[in-house]
# Entry
Amino acid sequence: MNRNPILTLVRLLALAIPALSLARAEDGYRLWLRYDRLTDAALGRVVLATPAGTDSPTIAAARDELAAGLGGLLGSTTPVTLEPTAADAALGDEGYRLTAATRGGQPAVVIAANHDVGVLYGAFALLRRIQTGGSLDGLNLASVPRIQRRLLNHWDNLDRTIERGYAGFSLWEWFVLPDYLDPRYRDYARACASLGLNGTVLTNVNADVLVLTAPWLRKVAALADVFRPYGIRVYLSARFSAPIEVGGLKTADPLDPAVARWWKDKADEIYALIPDFGGFLVKANSEGQPGPQDYGRSHADGANVLADAVAPHGGIVMWRAFVYDQHIPSDRAKQAYDEFKPLDGKFRPNVMVQIKNGPIDFQPREPVHPLFGALPHTPEVLELQITQEYLGQGTDLAFLAPLYKECLDTDTFAAGPARGELVESGSTVARIVDGSLQHQGLTAIAGVANTGDDRDWCGHPLAAANWYAFGRLAWDHDLTSEQIADEWTRMTFGNDPRVVAPVTAMLLASREAVVDYMTPLGLHHLMATGHHYGPGAWVDNLRPDWNPVYYHRADAAGLGFDRTATGSNAVAQYAAPLAARYADLSTCPENLLLWFHHVPWDYRMHSGRTLWDELCLHYQHGVDAVRGWETTWVTLKGRIDDERWSHVAALLRIQERDARHWRDACLLYFQTFSHRPLPAGVEPPAHSLEYYEQVHLVRMPGNPGKD
Amino acid sequence: MNRNPILTLVRLLALAIPALSLARAEDGYRLWLRYDRLTDAALGRVVLATPAGTDSPTIAAARDELAAGLGGLLGSTTPVTLEPTAADAALGDEGYRLTAATRGGQPAVVIAANHDVGVLYGAFALLRRIQTGGSLDGLNLASVPRIQRRLLNHWDNLDRTIERGYAGFSLWEWFVLPDYLDPRYRDYARACASLGLNGTVLTNVNADVLVLTAPWLRKVAALADVFRPYGIRVYLSARFSAPIEVGGLKTADPLDPAVARWWKDKADEIYALIPDFGGFLVKANSEGQPGPQDYGRSHADGANVLADAVAPHGGIVMWRAFVYDQHIPSDRAKQAYDEFKPLDGKFRPNVMVQIKNGPIDFQPREPVHPLFGALPHTPEVLELQITQEYLGQGTDLAFLAPLYKECLDTDTFAAGPARGELVESGSTVARIVDGSLQHQGLTAIAGVANTGDDRDWCGHPLAAANWYAFGRLAWDHDLTSEQIADEWTRMTFGNDPRVVAPVTAMLLASREAVVDYMTPLGLHHLMATGHHYGPGAWVDNLRPDWNPVYYHRADAAGLGFDRTATGSNAVAQYAAPLAARYADLSTCPENLLLWFHHVPWDYRMHSGRTLWDELCLHYQHGVDAVRGWETTWVTLKGRIDDERWSHVAALLRIQERDARHWRDACLLYFQTFSHRPLPAGVEPPAHSLEYYEQVHLVRMPGNPGKD
# Structure
């Protein structure tokens, strides 16, 4: 059975028909699920095997996908049949196994799973393997997700604007739901399921209470019905004051029995419409949102009242730890830990605390959030951002798999050795989030979506790589950034090595380049006012914890936020070995140096250069990297379709200009403190500091109602 | 040459390959420019003939379109060659002539024009003729536009929301302009040019001053560059207070020399970037917009200062007459006439006054605006609405060619016989707008666009018919609604008579049905608060001239607004014969009865029924019409593609429900005054009046920032 030629698909057969694939318009709509002809090789049969062995809407979805995918890729019809099979405990609820086999003397691939959703995931895995030029010879591949709930969080408003959305209007056409079901909903579900994503929070965490009213719940139910065959459960954000605003109560106090009753009744109403409703995501007492503290109650009190309401139906509550208050005279980075650490053990079992990767807010680089591992009795959801709020938004290339991996792979030492022993302990964020370290029964990961109704879904032709990377890592956090970049590039642009190698190189370098030209060496939160796009390191006229000067603390002596014991002592929130690593200037990773330390301008970096020179060269390097991609991109002209090529070329021009703008604005400003010249190799700024200070970007995408 | 079989394309050849056209996804993107294979017949050659006889970007656009169109429709390559020809005065600047001819013994079609844009229009006309199944036998067809400036008005904001837009975000991707030029811009230009539209006002009349600043003008220039080969000039809305807001002046007083200088400099700056810039559209002293009256100056003073600025460059100013003020204790319908009539003759020659079709605001039915014909020394622009602000917005079918025609064909008697002679005088709105009646040297027509970035451009699959209808009538107002509906349906859905006949019947009946279930017999402005979608006839708590009760004046005696001499005497603003017709209850058209008269509930209508019974039956008829379309639409399943079929089917369900809602809410409310039972044939309401009164629609499309 091995080496059966009919099952062998070698890489790069896409080269056989470049003319055809260039001839059709490539508008990006198909994402990575492009099924253009790869080869004439035929696959004898695909067998879908489950213990039930029966058809279902999910099996039908797998059949549809295989028919479209194999038909497109192989140019022939492959029979797909159903068989009963023994249960396989190793595969769990959602895993699958792909095996080369024979049926009736013919070669076949068996997709086995315990449940039909596993078959669907296996079907996508088979297609991915073919699409990326993998061999089916002797195929025997099992895969099981590491995290139970793999969610997109949509910050979509009910008027179809999207907070921090850079790809058009919301996908959800609320006004014509439930009557009209855009065919796009199914394609959204296909794209999610192809990655193994199994849940979607449809609405913004800055929640609109209306979504909890009957007419809107019927709309939500219609979406849930479309997504269900693809294994995707719907969740909603819940506004904490809903019992007042739509319930007519006088209070939303979570300890008030009428409030508890209201939430129970609301949950019952929801589950009557959506039996597999996932649960609620809540942003409370943060940035003006209502919450339990309005009534002198704790986050645990607030989360528990909702948790009790959904518990009888198997629902969960994801309670966000993104809280900060300008009136608390502490380091903003410390506040979430200070508020949530004492609550460990006080949440219901179906409450999860949802924590952003870092303690501030989706900066180009942050250390991991100190809450990871610090709540051993509370399941923790890792919240990553797919949309590029602080990472060049809709115009910059910033492939985020390296950012996600950096967080997931960070050793928190939560179950680690005693203070001072800096051997790795295996207490990675990944093992906390997947529940293996602290034996959590409930596990989840969330990505803030970058989708919109732009034809190509994500606005930037390369931005879909981030949706892809999040989904793949949510399934298996052991995948490397390189593997993911390679897969996505092959599926999106084909297997031509003259395309795959340079595109993956660009992707893999891009996040670090953005860090370099925006906020190198641990700098953070340097944006100008009114958006999170361009630089404004000089801004000091907002509420204190929104001012860039609060974060960089530049002065004549040096640069950076002292978060050691001589400063805010935020380092103390980390487990002792990690705290010690960060607190010591000589062991603190240089890429986080200015996050934790106020460092003299002449401090000697590992390179032997001064901090100032190193800072300048990082900014320059960021610009140089973008220029390098522009040069690379020129070599791809004609090797990928003109439509996507031209779009990326234009966006790279914008990115290069913006990178220079960041470099020049930041260096001119910091130079007013350092009083040092730019080192050799750093280009002189194009304008004066005054010029950059008066740039006022308005009518920005992703900023609905705020100018 | 006649009857040359190679030039004969009979109707309905589309039937030959239905399977193929059903096989591909029909997402509406191609609009009416679908070039699916019609027939195997070949066309020998197409000759493009101008006096210059030379190539140009516009000739290239014509060649591209013919290559795509003839290649698609005929499935073969047709040579397209260029020839010099004598000028033809009859064709003017933009007209064309299509003639059957021979070249080198081969049959050919000659597209002759004096300028290359005429060739482009001729190319589209040839394709339309083939696409709609017309014969090319003995072809000899000349066409010249009746109106010089044929414009779309986009109410698009710089943040990409669209006021009264129901098809997604703005097409203009301001943030990435001028770097990235979406391929869609060219398709927009193709669609406009295919109809003969030659101008576009890119920005909302509620104007954002930023568009007049240098960075935004560079973005505008990039769009102008894309549109130019298609004969389309760009215009901008101008905020009257711009000299203060971006000019730094203390005043925007139009008689202040510094203000005049500022506008001149701004115009020079614009024309340096966009040499063929069309000019400005201004909404001033209306609904909170700044204007010359802020300085005690007249609309003429305001318009003239802008006109002087653009005059050296050949630009024009379109000054909107849509003005009304709650503090003027007059009938809102009278105010524009009262303000503008005294200004006739006081405008610069390059100022046009832009007037909505009716005196209120794009209601389902209005009488013509009394200003038409009343400013004999001032060129008048007719402003029609393509977007369906008060006509069911994004969900209702309402084909507006009959509305446009009703206005264009109305005899204003502006140059008519003496009072009392009711023979038609030929003083139609069409002849006023095309300049022929009052010998205007400058003519224009404007349609408020219904486009957005929805994949199908207009949101509702049948709404593109309104863009089409506006464009075709702007070119030739003698076309009938029937001709236009037939053309659009054939180009959009193919020539199958089992599709064409029912779809055109639906289109042609639709506007009257919407009038019937919303505002029959001259009722108007009955919307609930916060949107212009659902009914709220009872609303009386807004500023007076926004309240429905201001307009319908229902009481125990009857219904309607007395605008005769016993009331507001708005009728007196019309030319005497028309005023007399409207003022007399017996000659006033019944479909405008309640616009002009307060009519007793038991008044006998032409049908012999009482007003009350007639009113009820109109509402019922509107509902019945929509139900009829639902039945019709079922017969089309499988005859048109599933994607568009399903979308329309869903929207018809919404429309039927909303029609019932309008009927029930309005009749229940008016019944509180009439105290009469519903006549036989009218369905009883589904709910109580209180139910309808508490419906509060929010998060509505097309209402950016207003909930």
